[in-house]
Amino acid sequence: MDYNIYTLGDIDFVWSAFTGIALIFSKYTGVKEFMTTAAVLSAVNLFYRTWLWLLNPQKTELPVFSWFLGLILFMMAVTRVDVTIESVKTGEVRNVDGIPIFIAATATVTTNLSQGLLRDYKKAFDPLSPVNISATT
Q: Do residues 78 and 61 lie in contact, with contact meaning Cβ atoms separated by under 8 Å?
């Protein structure tokens, strides 16, 4: 899937922001420590929820389901994709590598939605030719 992000403003600012996000999630800035901490916290949370489930006489909810949901959300933070940033005003295009998929997908959906709405509004409210005022009077 292509992740295209459209910007109406300064492409340098958006490119710098996404480059910073890529740097935060890059493999050179402590991701190993982040992954180790997340794995330990996940194991502790699963142990704690299992302990509470064993002590609960009603046994209403299995703790594994919430653990799998957390695992899926964690995988969305770890999976990285490439993003293309395009300026609507100038047509300039820049690429950023290594953006987490949840940030890329959210930005892609919102900018594509706004660009589609802008295109539709322009079609609906911008006439192709000026209105002939003398023909109506």
A: no
